[in-house]
Amino acid sequence: MTLTIENGWLDKAQKKPSPFYNQRPTNDVSLLVIHNISLPAGEFGHTYIDDLFLGNLDCDAHQTFKELEGLEVSAHFLIRRNGEITQFVNCDERAWHAGVSEFEGRSGCNDFSIGIELEGADTCNYEDTQYQSLLILTQAIIKAYPAITTERIIGHCHIAPVRKTDPGPYFDWQYYLSALS
Ligand SMILES: [Zn+2]
């Protein structure tokens, strides 16, 4: 299967527009950042991630959600455990996924990056179907934003090493990057 991004939106993906985005200060979209997320941590299959990115999370639904109260975050894409892709922010706009970050001396990676969240955790493997979706999504992104070369596909842990560990030690970089080339 081939996916296409047109005017910043992926065809064939579920779209759930997040309020948490703004305009990029530059037309330069040249970095792809891979993340993981699970809510509650280590649990999969809930809709809480969508709720968080849409600003609808019920912070009373779980004790660990209290600290998420008022948090305004998003990513361009989420890939669920079953491989399903949801898009929350137009790729031409700035999503709020990287936070304080730096790549090759340039800070504020949200300005020039696309963020993909994998539903997952640092403590377990990702599903094969997630890699397959990630690969076809990455190919669509590279086609639409050719400044994103394989050298410019990194983890959140690489641009915010003090704060972040995702996508974690179970993410198979070698498999992913070699399958792209
Ligand atoms: Zn992250």
What can you see in these coordinates?
- The protein has 181 residues and is an alpha/beta fold.
- It has one domain: 3-Layer(aba) Sandwich (Lysozyme-like), CATH 3.40.80.
- 20% of the residues lie in helices and 22% in strands.
- Strand 6 and strand 7 form a beta hairpin.
- The longest helix has 17 residues, at 128-144.
- It is globular, with a radius of gyration of 15 Å.
- The two termini are 17 Å apart.
- The model has no long low-confidence stretch (mean pLDDT 97).
- Zinc ion (ZN) binds at residues 35, 156, 164, 166.
Spell out which ligands are present.
zinc ion
Please tell me the CATH architecture by its name. Answer: 3-Layer(aba) Sandwich
Spatial shape: globular
What is the radius of gyration?
15 Å
- Helical coverage, percent range: 10-25%
Strand content: 15-25%
- Low-pLDDT parts are none
Task: Give the SSE string.
Answer: EEEEEHEEEEEEHEHH
The total count of strands amounts to: 12
Distance between the termini: 17 Å
CATH class descriptor: Alpha Beta
> What is the fold-level CATH name, i.e. the topology?
Lysozyme-like
What is the mean pLDDT?
Answer: 97
CATH superfamily: Peptidoglycan recognition protein-like
Number of helices: 4
Number of domains: 1
